[in-house]
Amino acid sequence: MNDSNRRLHGTWSSRWTFILAATGSAVGLGNIWKFPYIAGENGGGAFVLIYLVCILLVGVPVMMAEVMLGRKGGMSPINTMRHLAEEAGGHRAWSAVGWVGMVVGVLILSYYSVIAGWALHYIGEMAGGALQGASGRDSAMRFAGLLADPKRLMALHTVFILLTMGVVIGGVTHGLGVAVRTMMPLLFLLLVVLLLYGADSGNFAAGLDFMFSFRFDGLTWKGVLEALGHAFFSLSLGMGAIMAYGAYMPEDAPIGKSVVTIAFFDTLVALMMGLAIFSMVFAVPGLAPDAGPSLMFQTLPVVFGNMSGGLLFGVLFFMLVALAAWSSSISLIEPGVAWLIETHRFNRITANLLLGGIAWVLGIGTVLSFNLWQDYTLGDSTFFDVLDFLTASILLPLTGMFIAIFAGWVMRKEVATAALGDRAPRLLALWYWLLRYVAPVAIGGIFLFGLYSKLI
Ligand code: PHE
Fold first, then answer.
1. Does position 339 have pLDDT exceeding 90, yes or no?
2. How far, in Å, CA of 417 to CA of 308, rounded?
3. What is residue 6's predicted lDDT score, i.e. its pLDDT?
4. Cβ(331) – ligand 1 distance below 6 Å
5. Which CATH superfamily does the domain covering 3-455 fall into?
6. Cα(160)–Cα(163) distance, rounded to whole angstroms?
7. What is the C-alpha separation between 98 and 93, in angstroms, rounded?
8. Which long-range contacts (CB under 8 A, 24 or more apart) does 183-187 make?
9. Which of 193-202, 248-257, 274-283, 336-345 is predicted with the least confidence, judged by mean pLDDT?
């Protein structure tokens, strides 16, 4: 990063702050809320296996590429891609990767914030004791009541967007950097406390069986596409978040090691949450593993409501969800904010107001898709379902594929590998091979099959 950009945006204060920020971006609703429910919808174990393969063979190499491109380009993803393409003798149109990423970030934020708002709501529900002694039915009805109330959903969505903008306005060093250094230790502490609590509360054996016995009958090509898409979503890949964060990274820190750490934590949290949630689902009569997006919000309150001390842990749990969502949502608008500042001389406040405002307006569509608009569907998908599928299953893997192609085929090999800052030659060769061949072919193949099976 050159000095003027360093001054424009600021930098992480150390390699660890980068790791915390990227882990904060990666660990979010994707791990706690989405992973368990899509694994549940796709038959459990087999989906988990495919997901892990996608993380290892595609997610990790593409993440290394994104951080590398970000650090080498040193600017917002749009300008980084344009600059690196020019340097490598490629076409300016490569900046489209950054453009699509910026748009996808705002699209994801628009629904992410609505769901994060549910978590905020449940902090209050738990604290107020409304779910004390609740049955599976009571909890399902309360959740349905929340979804049927657009005004309340809008209020929660608004609060969450404001929280997100509040941090991003503070800038990289003092806003995002300070936020992640405070939030992440708290998040891990909460996670450990909750796991200890959950370990003896549920039907752990049934949870383990559901997550790790690889029965392939529940899995379809559409499920495989979702697993791939979710690997991108969960690692925050394919939309420039990690590229933007890479630009604020110290010049000499080795990228491979950092990325493996981040991917490890991200996967660990997803698996732990899956185990915890399914152990509890199987312990409560009347709850099904394939309940979809409502899984976490219906099942966990029942468990918390029926155990001694449960309400306190319920409050802590939903605080954990909200924190995890918050440290992710800030990375959804940072790439666009950085670009507006660099190219259009916005200041951080106006850039945030503009992008946060767009996400807020779009979020209205998601809010209404759970109530007034729930019958306006495409096939049987609501506005929210379409937005989620379009961003997570289509646009993220597709942009991720172009990132792999750019780093693997357009940039010169020596430049790309030198920019990683890692030394082990075998690992570098493995990375390059995965990036050049495995990632694009796997993404392209899964993509075509998945789309085909979704459409027929
Ligand atoms: N990785 C985040 C999660 O799992 C979501 C996210 C996607 C954040 C893309 C930033 C960019 O919840």
1. yes
2. 55
3. 62
4. yes
5. Amino acid/polyamine transporter I (1.20.1740.10)
6. 5
7. 10
8. 183/24, 183/323, 183/326, 183/327, 184/20, 184/23, 184/24, 184/327, 186/323, 187/24, 187/27, 187/320, 187/323, 187/324, 187/327
9. 193-202
User: Quick check: CB of 391 below 6 Å from ligand 1?
Assistant: no
CA of 324 to the centre of ligand 1 (A): 10
Of 308, 167, 331, nearest in space to 241 by CA: 331
CA-based nearest residue to 71, from 265, 317, 249, 309 = 249
For residue 52, how many other CB atoms are within 10 A of its CB? 16
CA distances from 278 to 40, 149, 208, 287 (A): 9, 28, 8, 10
31 C-beta closer than 6 A to ligand 1: yes
Q: Would you state the structure tokens that stand for residue 273, as one six-digit string?
A: 């949450």
Its sign, for the CA torsion 211, 212, 218, 221, is positive
Does residue 223 carry a pLDDT above 70?
Answer: yes
Q: How many CB atoms lie within 10 A of CB 140?
A: 20
When pLDDT is cut at 50, 70 and 90, the band that residue 3 belongs to is: low
From CA 180, how far away is CA 312, in angstroms rounded? 24
Angstrom distance (rounded) from CA 193 to CA 74: 39
**Ligand 1 contacts CB of residue 29 (under 6 A):** yes
Note the Cα 69 to chain centre separation in Å.
Answer: 20
Write down the domain spans for the chain: 3-455
CA angle 404–405–409, rounded 5-degree value: 120
In this predicted structure, the answer to whether residue 371 has a pLDDT above a threshold of 80 is: yes
Between 111-125, 161-175, 199-213, 361-375, the lowest mean confidence (pLDDT) is in 199-213
How close are the terminal C-alpha atoms of the chain, in Å? 47
pTM over 0.85, yes/no = yes
Cα–Cα distance, 456 to 444 (Å, whole number): 18
Token digits for 69?
A: 């491109």
How far, in Å, is the centroid of ligand 1 from the Cα of 306? 32
Instruction: Among 330, 331, 334, name the best residue to mutate to test ligand 1's pocket (greatest count of ligand atoms within 8 A of Cβ).
Output: 331
Question: Does 287 have pLDDT greater than 80?
Answer: no
Number of H helices, E strands in the chain: 23, 0
Calculate mean pLDDT across residues 88-116. 95
